[in-house]
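Figure 3 (text version): structure tokens given as input.
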């Protein structure tokens, strides 16, 4: 099922417009991860406290810091960023979800952040991090009684999209990565293998554990889509909203989003975004970030990332509103 961004925009506006926009609370916390370093986590949620402008890394957001959440039985969306990112990368989508009544928890994946690539290819770390994040919100967070553990969704971009598919029951075959790199020596995986300190191969299928608490997922420009060939997504039955950038130069067709689309046993709600490139799924860049990281902030001529995100965020809110009822 394909749904264009513009076609779904009007419906999304009518759905979200019916809800009362709320101020958003925000907290940054550290979550224990066994013997490893604590996970750095951002939490957004509806609140009755007045919001003010605050800096968050290179971004600015209007939130009420460390305020009390408002509401009860709130659905939860957990977020997984792409390679070399941080929990801040999708803050505009997190804010949109929180304004619509969701709790959003986003993690910085230890060893695969902008300042630490020591475990960038240790893909099995990522689903475990998200599982620990859900545990924290539902069991340990001071406001856990506000959250409905039966309504949990996942959002993932790039390597985070791969992560979300694993959490839904996907079983990737990472032994396919080496063959892909040999066939595509200029691919992103090939470049990453040269920089990273950890291998991508040698992971047992038993490593990939489904988290049945997750009932739906938004997957944008998923990495390693081809590793789900030959039935790797046959156990994924939850609803998926799948996004592809039509001019993705990092993860080009047909080996990534299209490979996932073909492998899903249940047709995804599919969005293909004209003239979009890979990093257009990241939040619109601040002026500081444009100076610091122009590679992830530069869109193709004629593409308006800010306008796209207005539609994208509404579609994400609508999808989770429908699937996490």
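Below: residues designed for each position.
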């Amino acid at each position: 099922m394909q749904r264009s961004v513009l076609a779904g925009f009007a419906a999304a506006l009518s759905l979200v417009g019916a809800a009362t926009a709320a101020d958003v609370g925000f907290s940054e916390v550290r979550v224990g991860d066994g013997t490893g370093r604590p996970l750095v986590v951002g939490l957004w949620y509806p609140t009755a406290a007045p919001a003010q402008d605050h800096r968050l890394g290179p971004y600015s957001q209007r939130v009420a810091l460390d305020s009390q959440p408002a509401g009860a039985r709130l659905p939860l969306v957990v977020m997984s960023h792409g390679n070399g990112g941080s929990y801040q990368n999708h803050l505009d989508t997190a804010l949109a979800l929180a304004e619509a009544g969701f709790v959003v928890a986003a993690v910085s994946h230890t060893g695969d952040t902008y300042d630490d690539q020591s475990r960038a290819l240790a893909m099995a770390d990522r689903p475990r991090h998200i599982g620990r994040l859900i545990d924290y919100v539902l069991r340990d967070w001071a406001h856990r009684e506000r959250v409905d553990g039966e309504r949990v969704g996942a959002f993932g971009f790039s390597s985070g999209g791969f992560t979300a598919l694993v959490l839904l029951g996907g079983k990737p075959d990472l032994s396919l990565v080496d063959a892909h790199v040999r066939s595509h020596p200029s691919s992103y995986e090939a470049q990453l293998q040269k920089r990273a300190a950890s291998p991508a191969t040698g992971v047992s299928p038993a490593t990939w554990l489904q988290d049945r608490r997750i009932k739906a997922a938004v997957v944008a420009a998923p990495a390693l889509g081809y590793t789900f060939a030959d039935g790797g997504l046959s156990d994924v039955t939850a609803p998926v909203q799948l996004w592809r950038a039509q001019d993705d130069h990092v993860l080009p067709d047909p080996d990534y989003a299209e490979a996932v689309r073909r492998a899903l046993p249940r047709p995804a709600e599919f969005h293909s975004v004209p003239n979009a490139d890979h990093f257009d799924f990241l939040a619109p860049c601040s002026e500081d970030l444009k100076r610091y990281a122009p590679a992830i902030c530069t869109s193709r001529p004629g593409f308006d990332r800010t306008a796209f995100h207005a539609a994208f965020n509404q579609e994400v809110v609508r999808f989770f509103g429908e699937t996490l009822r």
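Residues 64 and 126 are 29 Å apart (CA to CA).
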